[in-house]
Amino acid sequence: MIVFEHVSKQYSQDAYALKDVSLSIADGELIFLAGPSGAGKSTLLKMIAGIEKPSSGRVSVNGQDISKLKTSSLPYLRRKLGLILQDQKLLNDRSVLSNVMLPLVVTGASSTEAEQRARIALEKVGLPDKAASLPMALSGGEQQRVAIARAIVNRPQIILADEPSAFLDRENANKVLGALKAFQSAGVTCIISSHDEQFLDQASRVIYLSQGQVVNTWKSSLAA
Ligand code: ADP
Ligand code: ADP
Prior knowledge:
Layout lengths: L1 E11 L2 E11 L4 E5 L6 H8 L7 E6 L2 E2 L8 H6 L1 E4 L11 H11 L4 H14 L15 H13 L5 E5 L7 H16 L3 E5 L11 E6 L2 E7 L5
Parallel strand pairs: 3-8, 3-9, 6-7, 7-8
Antiparallel strand pairs: 1-2, 1-4, 4-5, 9-10
Helix pairs in contact: 3-4, 3-5, 4-5, 5-6
The structure holds adenosine-5'-diphosphate (2 copies).
The site of one adenosine-5'-diphosphate has 10 residues, from helix 1.
Organism: Undibacterium hunanense
Pfam families: ABC_tran
GO molecular function, one term: ATP binding
């Protein structure tokens, strides 16, 4: 469960990235964060991961107040999260497999186990035959699916994806989204930001942001 209570974020005195946002997201939901560029979608996602802190208000994940977490506790929070953020590029000097293994290697898994789980993650996003490739040799859509594999290799409870379908054509965007939806079907909470309206009807709920405020929220007819 993710809860925002009267959360505001000000980067400067008169500019709010988020303004008095209150919402709660239950386990297993597939949420689309919609709204134009600059609406505050990335800021909202980063707050769930503790990357940005609220200027006021409270964000909690599974009952734990994120802003009260010590820096030393953040890695424990992050282990529950799969992050697909725009500023996290794949490393181009190593293979796809090695990129996906990385989150496991840094948490001390053996290389045998890391490799095994990374291969399973690549299968789940439909790219088992790209393990040995360099990221640069892949299409944009494939690279985005590698980023998803890297995000889910730790088996997170929550996936946060910032504009995962940006710059992709419809077919590739559909594959990326299909991969994310498969995790939601397995019980993982997915929060996906998108300014791409064509996918909104696939979400269990759409939260529409404008100028840092929730201006609309609706449940899809597919909602469980
Ligand atoms: P979105 O993801 O919907 O495009 P963002 O959360 O990135 O929106 O940005 C919301 C607003 O906050 C924008 O006006 C943006 O310029 C501003 N903003 C975001 N990050 C920073 C930052 N680090 N410093 C100053 N302003 C920022
Ligand atoms: P299993 O016991 O086979 O892992 P689960 O019921 O846990 O089955 O999950 C169903 C499917 O979804 C399996 O393929 C599982 O590996 C996958 N899965 C479940 N949760 C996650 C997660 N957080 N990250 C990645 N894959 C997951």
